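Posting for a labmate who doesn't have an account.
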Amino acid sequence: MTNKTIYKKTFIIAALALVTHFNVQAKELIGKVSISADTQQADLKRNIVIFKNNVDINHTDKNIKADLLEVHRRSELGKEKQVLIATGNPATFSGKLKDGSAVTASATNIRYDVEAGTLTFKGNAKINQSGQSMSAKTIVYDHLQELITAKKDKDSNQRVHTILTPVKKEENNKSGNN
């Protein structure tokens, strides 16, 4: 058996393990990632697993829905070796922050860098959290630090747009007046 044959068999086993028990080790976000789709294929030459049509990714309290997902797994990607790239019209994200508040987002392209712990939303990116909303060409959400950064493309006139909704004092006082 040649090294190339051994490598291909090892990659097939790794790809199957990736699909059936995909463990994300991004600091506190350890747990199974469940991916379902209409079609799946493993590109052995490029170390990419591709999911097509009705893609649904679940991880703890986070969900991404997309038309296409590419899971890249290579040593040059860092310690965690995984990058997930979801595309859709739009691809959507939903999850919860540490305080329990909901966050939703959408974009043409969502890139999840496991090692960095970041989600990059690109192409008509929108994010909503606790009644606040933001839109831009690109939005980066660091879910480990709970930091959101938005920016416009240098070649675009589309600027970052944010809508702030005031929190009603009555809602805050109800929990303390009982």
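Reply:
Got it, the structure tokens are right above this. The longest strand covers residues 82-96.
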